[in-house]
Each structure stands twice: as C-alpha cells, then as structure tokens.
Amino acid sequence: MQWETVIGLEIHVQLSTRTKIFSGSSTAFGAEPNTQANAVDLALPGILPVFNEQALAKAVAFGLAIDAEIGKQSFFERKNYFYPDLPKGYQTTQLEAPIVGRGHVDVLLDNGESKRVRIHHAHLEEDAGKSLHEDFHGMSGIDLNRAGTPLIEIVTEPDIRSAAEAVAFAKKLHTIVTAIGICDGEMSQGSMRFDVNVSVRPKGSETLGTRTETKNLNSFKFMEEAIHLEVERQIDILEDGGSIIQETRLYNGDTKTARSMRSKEEANDYRYFPCPDLLPVVIDESYIDAIRDTLPELPDAKVSRFIRDYDLTDYDANVLSASQAMADFFEGVAKSGGDAKLAANWCMGEFSKYLNQNNLEIEANPITPENLGQLIARIKDNTISGKIAKTVFQAMTDGEGTPDQIIEAKGLKQVTDTGAIEAMVDEVIAANLDQFEEMKAGKDKLMGFFVGQVMKISKGQANPGQVNQIIQSKLKG
To answer: At residue 345, does pLDDT exceed 70?
Structure first.
C-alpha cells in the first residue's frame, strides 16, 4: 500500500526579553541552577504576577510577520498538571483567546516549489523548569531557572507531508523569529524546541490517521531523523495489521531511537480554568500599528530585494537571507568587492565551509566583510586568480593580514604579461610536441593538460584565460 505522511508542528520559541513573563527574574542563559527563580516564579503564597509588556510586543511582532490575525483581547488560563519541574503545579498559558490567530508561512522547498504552511495560532505562555537526569545516580535534579521564561507556542495546521518539508518550514520559522529580533534562535540553549505530530494514511484518503507527538526536538537534524523513524514505525505497525496508539514519544539523538513516554492527553485532561491573578490583555489598532512600524525587513522581502538589486538566483537569495548575520555579511562583501555574484559564491562556498569546519558563528569569525570584499576585488581586477584566492583566504583565516598584505608578502600577484606567458607556453609545447600535434589533429581534451602544465611552471600565477588564448593561437598558427 502507498502511504501519505501528515505532519503538524508545535514550536516553542523563547522570547528574548531580559526578564521573565510574570516576574523580574533574569532570563540569561548559563546561570548556576536555581539562582534565577524568585517567589513569583514559584507561586509562593501571597504573590501576584505582573505581565511583561515586552513579551506581548514580541508576540504581536511575530503575528504581523506571518500576516496573522492579532487578538485585540486575549486571556491567560492555568493548565494544571503535576511534574517535578513545574513548581506551581500549573502552567500559565493561553487557550481560548490567544494573542496570535490564523496566519501562514511560505516555504521554498528543495525542488524549487513554494509551499504555504498555515499557522492555526500562536499563544503566550511561561516555560517550566528543567529535569536533569545525567549527573545524578538513581535520582533527578531540578533546575528552576527556566521556570517563568516567556514563550510563544506556534501551532501549525497538519499541512506538512514529509520530513524535508518539516525541516524547510522550521528553518524558515527560525529565519523569521531571528530576523525580527524576538528570539536569539540558539536551539542548543533551548531557545527553539519542536514538538512533531505525525500520522500516516493511505494515499488518496482524506481521513487523518492516529497521530503521535514526539516532543522537545532541539535541532533540525534530530527533527528529520525523528520523523523518518516514526513514519517507518507507524507504517510497519499498520502493514502488520496493528493500530497506532495516540501517545507522546521521546527521541534520543545519540542512540537514534525513540520510546513511548505517556499516553496522549487531551485539553480537558489539564482542567484549564481562567487565571484569577491576571486581567485580560486588551490592545488596540494603534498599539499594533506602532509595533508594525518597528519591524525590520522581513525575510521574504529581503529575498525579493536580493534578486532585484543583486541579480541573484532564487536559490542564492534564499540561502544568503536565511540568517540575518549572513545577509548582513553578504551585503558588506558585495559592497566592498563590487561584484555581487562573486560575493554570493564566496559567502556560500569557501566562507561557509570555513565556518562549518571550525564550528564558528559569523559574528565570531576573524574575517570581516571588507576583507573578503577586498579579496573579491583582487580576483575581479586580475591581481590574483580564483585558485590563488583560496590560498590567500586560508592565510586570512590564519590571521596573516589583509588580502593585499598577503598577496604582496607571498608574491602571489598573477602573471598577466603576455610575453612571459607565451614563453612558458612555448616551453611546455617544446617538452610535449607529440601531444601538441595530437591536439592540433583534433584531440581537444589535451587542452586541459597544456593549460595545467603552464600553470604548474608558473606556480599557479599565470592568468588561465590568457594561457588558454595563447595556446589557441599556437594551434591556429
């Protein structure tokens, strides 16, 4: 039987406020356990929460970025459940009237097609603490530093049909929330976490299958792996005549395995009721317009501008605008180097390769946009060849100076003197007369050999275009 995968995502995005959603405790990452939770976060008797207006503003900004309905009146409820890292015994969240209503995110897939993923809603809520199991023998540790950290939970419609589509959507969402500055996007620090709802159904069926939820995936790679594993598991069960149990599952990225965590709860299992300590949140059109005026250039608009202003392909524009840091770096390189296409190639090629190999963020790397632009300018004005540029780039990463300083110190200037290059070509032809006669007789593939030999004796510094032209003229002569 042919099967179709149906996926919906719930994404927890930590809002980049300095303090928590209902208290003045710090949200800074990396503090000693249990040093950033106060009486409000723990709901000690007699305390009252105070709503952080910055969390509201960031949630509204997200709604505007995805062209969503903004709730002019929203409410907080208490979601009741017991877990050791939930100090209050309930989570303050939104259910009936969330701040962000229906919207959408358009995603460019690897095959070049565009897909629209509908957003059902996004609601504000507080995070729980964290249970730590690895460092304790036979026990679990509880760190309440995250308790009360402001989140928006973004809930999609079940519009996604593969792991690849899920990852493409998640990456686009990451681009949006970091571009508008509501989240730092540091998934290793828990700033974005994905819950994946997966079901399968026979191809052509309109009826949704029984879904499972795999929780707390904190990387695109783990999300992709977890979806593939769960789809395969569900198909195997169904093809063996079994049925899928609605449950919550956990994926272990180290062992590449998943396990059942608990049966899936429904909303009524949590006994939601209105939070008696928080008034309704009421905003008007002027508040929304004021936030709209502060929004930076959105990712889709940036892609369109890159295509228009820099004459880039759709693919290049999407890759370069996928993060604000890369977009800004590319624009700096293009401005300094005077060639947008070369700037795009180097940013996506050697520069990205260098970052990946050294596990570096753009902000922490030693190469400035101006210096990479200078390198591109030297390729463009024929001071150096593209091949020698890679040698210069390596020296730049080693801290040996600017491109001009490195080219001068190492004597890497390209040989463009026609007489000097012709002398080298003559030398190579004299040493390989038989092959030259074969090439004259029509064996065109030997051209690469002759160009390579000239480049070898010039130590890579002869201009390859001129070498090719001179050899061609010798063939005609």
So the answer is: yes
